[in-house]
Design goal:
By secondary structure, this protein is mainly alpha-helical. The protein has helices at about 1-5, 10-39. Helix content is about 90%, strand content about 0%. The relative contact order is 0.09.
Length: about 40
């Protein structure tokens, strides 16, 4: 496990999770705009 943490620091994992969550919220917001705009 220590070998894996040496390759991928904790800060990189935190940044990856944040980018994933923000990306999903952004994609959901765009999808919502298209859904509401289509009606």
């Amino acid at each position: 496990m220590s070998n894996l943490e040496e390759k991928f620091p904790r800060a990189l994992w935190v940044r990856l999770v944040i980018y994933t969550v923000v990306g999903h919220f952004f994609a959901g917001f765009i999808w919502l705009l298209f859904t509401v705009g289509a009606k």
